[in-house]
Write the structure tokens for this entry.
Amino acid sequence: MYTMGVDIGSASSKVVILKDGTDIVVAEVVQFGTGSSGPQRALDEAIKKSNLSLSDMSKIVVTGYGRFGFDKADKQISEISCHAKGIFFLVPTARTIIDIGGQDAKAIRLDARGNVSQFFMNDKCAAGTGRFLDVMARVLEINIEEMADYDARATEVTKVSSTCTVFAESEVISHLSKGVSKENIIAGVHASVASKACGLAYRTGLEDDIVMGGGVAQNAGVVRAIRRELGRPVIVAPNPQITGALGAALYAYDEAKKANL
């Protein structure tokens, strides 16, 4: 039995195809999200790589910001539920999830069965999200993929205190004009993101194991900053960008099993 999960975010679209609710047949990520050709491209690539067709899917579940505009799914499920289910599948010891995406940050508390017992989300402001990092990388004239390497060379963490992306941009420009190194500024940018994400996590009632998901989890500098902020180990989920789509595919499997009863 094959099921599909689709996660349409603000910055990227992800598709996961599962076999029998356990085996990941394909996981595709396209760096275009809501309002673009990203969802269709991710879908096409996943189908092509799997040598399957949409008609082979017993059920399809969609999640993410763009879920309401996707007409090929049997069901829509919130990203909180899907990210929780996907991460618990990958890391069954997970009890606290920190998920930082392109346009939001989430902290989710799980019980021992993987059910969501508490969550907090920041989707009102770009500060503390992938979008914030994109803006800072542009101001610093580096590729966002380079930020972790710059962070690793930092000799100190330059404070970036502004809670607003626009003001933080001005703050970073001011640091540059004073001759502060890009390495130290980036360490400060990462610390700012970590502070906001950890603030959400503390509100859930922090419990180990702590697992990071979302595209920003691929930035080792942010992960280091979060570990430093919490003073505790933090696990990065395998292939952290796909956790929402994986959770959606798992929900699709549950739906398919119900339909076959």
The first strand starts at residue 2 and ends at 8. The mean pLDDT is 92. The chain has two domains: 1-91+238-261, 92-236.
